[in-house]
Design goal:
This protein has 285 residues and is an alpha+beta fold. It is built from eleven helices and ten strands. β5 and β6 form a beta hairpin. α3 runs antiparallel to α4 and α8 crosses α9.
Length: 285
């Protein structure tokens, strides 16, 4: 199996970032593979011709499509032509979500309510998109201002956005056709079920009765990753959860499917950008 590791983990540098971007798709990296962040993400699609891949699902995007994405959920957006591509993104760390929440109103609810990789999509009306865009634009101005009171206003606008999103998500019924090829979905399921074991091309061939080359090509076409990279990324994501939960580095290695400790350390540092011990310390600080 291809040993190239192209998996992307993209850390969010601040407690909260928000952007509203309109770009020509030719300026985007067409090869952006599946990736995940260390923060929660809310993505609103406004204009363009694109597909959203999220775990085992693929959606043809329509204006007003909003995705609620948790830190460990892998995703990518693929534009299919050179139309203008407009979207609003909000990334926010768990600590900030908890701080902005109250005993009556848990702002993490929309993220925690859906099963992993499922029911991430809700659809906004034109008026709801306009309302959300106004709040997001005001939040962006505050986040980039050093003027008196702008930090407090930023938290106020962020809270209004999150209350709006959670309220909307509670009453959301926006199912959409899943366009992900069945073989890719089945491959992902097989990997998830055997993540702590050795996984080879021969095993995939035996399980699905297709050549390993065809499975790998189709998988990479839709995820931007080799199967090997996807497996390593999933294992590293699992190890991060174990480290955050207080497991030792050695325990996280063993519980995440790595049979070689040195390989675990190298892979973790390459993907996360720091050794696992340093990551654990940063999470517990």
């Amino acid at each position: 199996m291809d040993q190239n590791t192209n998996y992307i983990f993209t850390p969010i540098p601040d407690e909260m970032i928000c952007f509203h971007r309109t770009t020509t798709t030719e300026l985007l990296n067409p090869a952006m593979p599946y990736h995940h962040h260390d923060a929660y993400e809310i993505y609103l699609f406004l204009r363009g011709n694109a597909y959203m891949y999220l775990e085992q699902s693929c959606y043809k995007l329509a204006p007003g499509d909003m995705f609620i994405i948790s830190p460990s959920e892998m995703h990518r957006c693929v534009c299919t032509d050179n139309q203008m591509y407009e979207r609003i993104g909000l990334n926010i760390k768990r600590s900030t979500l908890q701080r902005l929440s109250s005993p009556r109103s848990n702002l993490l609810s929309c993220f925690d309510a859906h099963p992993f990789g499922q029911n991430n999509l809700t659809r906004l009306s034109r008026d709801q998109c306009a309302f959300y865009s106004r709040l997001a634009d005001q939040l962006i101005v505050c986040l980039h201002s050093e003027a008196y009171g702008q930090d407090l206003l930023a938290e106020a606008y962020a809270t209004r956005l999150l209350v709006f999103i959670n309220t909307l998500y509670q009453s959301s019924t926006s199912p959409s056709d899943n366009l992900m090829p069945e073989l890719v979905r089945r491959t992902m399921t097989y990997i998830e079920e055997h993540l702590l074991e050795s996984i080879s091309s021969a095993q995939l061939e035996q399980a699905f009765h297709y050549s390993g080359k065809y499975i790998s090509q189709l998988f990479r076409e839709h995820t931007g990753l080799t199967i090997r990279s996807y497996i390593v990324g999933k294992r590293i994501s699992l190890s991060m959860s174990h480290l955050t939960a207080g497991k030792s580095v050695a325990e996280a290695c063993e519980l995440s499917g790595f049979s070689d400790y040195a390989n675990f350390i190298r892979s973790f540092k390459k993907i996360v950008g720091m050794p696992p011990g340093k990551y654990k310390a940063s999470e517990q600080a």
